[in-house]
Amino acid sequence: MTDLIQNSARPFTGGALAALLSPATRLLGLGEPTHGVEAFPELRNELFRHLVEHEGYRSITMESDCLAALVADDFVAGGTGTLDEAMSGGFSHGLAASPANRELLRWMRAVNEQRPPEDRLRCDGFDGPLEMTGAASPRAALTALHDHLAAHVDPAWSREALDDLLGPDELWTDPEALRDPARSVGRTPEARELRLVADDLRAQLTMHAPRLAAETSADDRWRADLHARTAAGLLRYHAGLADTSPTRLNAIMFLREAMMADNLDAIVRREADRGPTLAFAHNSHLQRDQSGMHFGGQPLRWWSAGAVMGARLGDGYAFAATTFGTRGTDTPGPETLEGVLSALPHDRAVIDPARFTAALDRRLTPRVPADYTYAALDPATIDRIDAVVFVREL
């Protein structure tokens, strides 16, 4: 390893990573290369503490159900629920099992106890109410939106009409709909009408904005808009599940990322006067380049939420990718990015991609990992990453 490559790296600290970011950053995406490995959310916690204490950050958002995250946010804000309740109800995708997520909520609540309400830390989810096996019913989002409006104005639709159109939730949550569009109710006449309902109810938030601003809190209005976005996004997603075209699976990947991007955009706008936001998710949801995978023997390509936010925010979006060297018997070859980084003298390192690529004297090849759940970084794209965080061994 050349001295130039070594000079592109520093031992990992929050400050070392923050030093590589533009001062214009409003949203920092921290990606992880695989799920379920505690080293990465632990690293995230360490970074977030630094960002809060030294860089003015006041919020974090994760690849978790945006509606479930309201439970976690209530807890960190000082709500009456217990930490156990916040964990069980506040996360999706199995994230409640993570000790690092538990420690994050505990620490955020402790910090908030010392702060005025307007300066409190916030915890959001930016994924839709989606799991690998299917999507939630739009009932919770639509009825919460309806009830918010009904407390102040005359909604365009009644709760009884909503219930009739929605039908049983089991029709919406059928896990077989992911593989078989005939099992989806997303393009029934009732589902099409529900998309009009969601549009009408969201329009009422705008039509009655002056009255709602006078009679409700900013948090209440934020949640109403969140429910409106989520209802519309879920109905689009269910319609995608019912699509019979050959591009169906690729289309629903785009739809999920669009929901993520819209949630990130709303969070950034909400936090505009308070400080930047840290977003934590898989690298594939936050990178600027197109993401891809094979599913059911079909190659899929889509623009990630991070790519969309990069297009919207420009220099206001920054992306830090994480990757690792050895995991059990899976050791990267010397010709790969991870193999080169494994020769660094640091167990955890922050790499300046611009200095690293300038110092390279050969072309690197993508790593082919033994574990299919791990997505290796493409060495040809690291010049479009603001920072790389490397963990030598898991």
UniProtKB/TrEMBL annotation:
One Pfam family in the UniProt entry: Erythro_esteras
One record GO biological process: response to antibiotic
UniProt-listed PANTHER family: ESTERASE, PUTATIVE (AFU_ORTHOLOGUE AFUA_1G05850)-RELATED
Protein name according to UniProt: Erythromycin esterase-like protein
